[in-house]
Amino acid sequence: AQSVTQLGSHVSVSEGALVLLRCNYSSSVPPYLFWYVQYPNQGLQLLLKYTSAATLVKGINGFEAEFKKSETSFHLTKPSAHMSDAAEYFCAVSTGFQKLVFGTGTRLLVSP
Amino acid sequence: KAGVTQTPRYLIKTRGQQVTLSCSPISGHRSVSWYQQTPGQGLQFLFEYFSETQRNKGNFPGRFSGRQFSNSRSEMNVSTLELGDSALYLCASSLDAANQETQYFGPGTRLLVL
């Protein structure tokens, strides 16, 4: 079964520091991977998705993720954190018929 | 283009009651999926509808049901509510059912069962 694992339920960074949120996937077939962000009391917003067209995927708000098959990883990065990036981030894999399997989420805390 | 809309946004019910939640997808989208989000279980897939047919179902009891109308709007129903059904229920829509299609989420309906 396809699944994703997010390491670290909380990640704290200072404003301006590098953001790295980790996601590892398990899939027997080429996966379709997604990163979503959730702000308090809101739904999920797509940051970026991997569909095998390119291993480095650029998303919104300066985020990007690199698909590494050898490491079964799809980590999310942003060079410089902003206070507005504080939110919960979810990695997900599509398993067919629009069923997304989500990781447990990582809450990003940004301090001034 | 208007996003996914869900109504109501907040709901309070008591145990044993039933509830119906509504989701209007983005115009032109034919696939609608439902998810339950709780602090303990995280985000879990409930079911997916495409052209009025349920194509996929998650591991939830039969008290959870849904349907999709010809205009792609969808409803989900939970009967005989239990305290554990308190959650944020998210609806997502996409153009079709291909794996790589992006799902766009609504703001959710927050259900509190007392």
The assigned structural class of chain B equals mainly beta
The total strand number of chain B stands at 11
Class derived from helix and strand content of chain A: mainly beta
Shape annotation of chain A: globular
Distinct helical segment count of chain A: 0
**How many whole angstroms does the radius of gyration of chain B measure?**
13 Å
Distance between the terminal alpha carbons of chain B, to the nearest Å? 37 Å
The chain pair forming the largest interface, with residue counts per chain, is: A-B, 24 and 27 residues
- Fraction of residues in helix of chain A: under 10%
User: Which ranges of chain B are low-confidence, i.e. pLDDT below 50, for 5 or more consecutive residues?
Assistant: none
Describe this structure in words.
The complex is a heterodimer of chains A (112) and B (114). In chain A, 0% of the residues lie in helices and 56% in strands. By secondary structure, chain A is mainly beta. In chain A, the strands form two sheets. In chain A, strands 2, 4, 5, 9, 10 and 11 form a six-stranded mixed beta sheet that branches. In chain A, strands 1-3-8-7-6 form a five-stranded antiparallel beta sheet, with no helix packed on it. In chain A, a hairpin with a 4-residue loop joins strand 7 and strand 8 (73-78). Chain A is globular, with a radius of gyration of 13 Å. The mean pLDDT of chain A is 92. Chain B is mostly beta strands and 114 residues long. Helix content of chain B is 0%, strand content 53%. Chain B has strands at residues 5-7, 10-13, 19-24, 31-38, 42-50, 53-57, 64-68, 74-78, 87-94, 104-105, 109-113. Chain A binds chain B through residues 32, 34, 36, 42-46, 49, 51, 90, 92, 94-105, and chain B through 4, 31, 33, 35, 42-45, 48, 50, 55-56, 58, 90, 92, 94, 97, 99-108.
